[in-house]
Amino acid sequence: MGRPSTLRPPHPHALLPSSLTHTNQIAIERAVQQHKGDPSAALEAATVSVGALFAKRVAGRVSTEVDPRLADDEAGLVAKGKAIAAAYATLGVKPDKFLLRIPATWAGIAAAGALEKAGLRTHMTNVASLVQASAAAQAGVAVVQPSVAALSDWYRAFPNAIRNPKGPREDAGGSPGATPGVDLVARIWCYMRRFHPGTAVMASGVRTREEALALSGVDYLVTGPKVLAALAAKPTTAGYNDGLSGAGGAGESGPALNAPRAAAMAFDEADTAPVTKQLFEEGLGAAGRDLLVAGVERLQADVDRVLPAMQNLVVGGV
Fold this sequence. Notes:
CATH topology: TIM Barrel
Oligomer: single chain
CATH superfamily: Aldolase class I
Shape: globular
Order of helices and strands: EHHEHEHEHEHHEHEHHHH
Distance between the termini: 51 Å
Number of strands: 7
C-alpha cells in the first residue's frame, strides 16, 4: 500500500559535479541578460533555467518555488505557476518533470487546486497540521511536506502545549517515545493512505537515525549526510543494510508506516469532512499557525536577500 521511502540530502548542490555547477552559472547569466531591468523576472527565469538542467538529469521531478511573496494571493499564485510552466515548456521540460512548490496557506492550497486542474502538479510546504494536509489532499495536490524538526522545536519551546487536543491528556496525544514532528508525519501519512492515496508525503527536517526509522515507509524522507551515514553503518539481521532498517531498532521487521498502522489510526468525522476556510483556521492550532507564518516569512526573506544581487546583475550586466 505504501511506497518505499526516498532519502534525499538537503543540499544537492554540494553533490553536483563542477561541470554542472558551471552550467548552472551560465544558465543564470543567460536568464539575467533576457530580463534587464526586472530583477523579479530575472530571478524567476534563472530558477527555471537551473530547474530545467536538473530535470534533464534526474529520474523524478524538480520542485520549483512559486514566488512566496504571493502566499496569500490565490490568483497571483495561479498566474505565476502557469508562467513557470510556460517557461519550462520553452526549454523543452514537460509538466511531468516538475512540481510547483507553494506554501500551505489557505490561498496557497486553493491555488494549488486550480493548478492541479490545469494539469500542473503541486508540492505544498510549511505543513504543520493535519488540517493543512487534508485540505491539500482534497485539492488534489501531489505532495505535502511537513517538517519533523520545525514542529518538534516548536513544542520544545512551548512544553506545556498539547500535541493533539483529541488525544489523552496524560501523553498529550503523542506516541510513547516519539517526537511531535514524527507523530504528525505518521498521522498525515496514515490519513493519506486511508483517504487520499494519490497524495504523497515528504518528511523533511529528519535529524536522527531513530526519526528516519520511525518514519520508514513514508513516501519521501529529506535528511542530511550524518543521518545517512548512521543508517548505512548499522547492520541488519538480514546481513545487509537497506537504509531504513537496523538491528535492534524500529524498522527491523518492516517499515514503521504500513497498511495495518494506517488502518488502525483513529480519525473522526471532522478529520475527513470537506475543509472550509473556518475549519482550516480553527484546525491550524497554535503550532500550525506560528510555523506557517514563520515559514512563509523565511521564504519571503530569502527572496528579499536575493533580489538586490539580481538587481545589480540586471543593471550592471554579468
